[in-house]
Amino acid sequence: MSGPLFVPDASVLLKWALRSPDEESAESALALKSAWLQGRVEIAVPSLWAFEVGNVLGLKQPSIAPLLLQALLDLALPEAGPQEYAPVMFKLMRQHEVTFYDAAYHGLAIWRGGTMLTADRRYVTRARSSGSAALIGEWNPT
Questions:
Q1: pLDDT, the chain, mean
Q2: pLDDT tens-digit profile of 4-22?
Q3: How far is the C-alpha of 64 from the C-alpha of 57, rounded, in Å?
Q4: What's the topology of domain 5-138?
């Protein structure tokens, strides 16, 4: 292991791919990627990440979506399937009235003892009481 574990959700991974410097929290998202590539933090993602990210890329950047998704796939992000932590996801769904796929990122963070990082303020507001969830803009790379 190489430092604390973070689970970036699709909103953070999209900032890695789209690299829009004027977008809120883009700098923090890219700093997370850099910290991971330098071995200062550990990253994990649920196995559904590519489908969620690919969907948004296909809608926002249809002409280059395949290239952007491939660049993320080439990073070989460590993935986890839901078989081990599905009960945590269902608990999050019930407690906070969130979707199963949003709960996948948060549930993985809880199960692995890390922190989910997201740009989704609404999700964090709803589910922060379960711990292990923070806004990417609040993350400090130092």
A1: 93
A2: 999 999 999 999 999 776 6
A3: 8
A4: Rossmann fold (3.40.50)
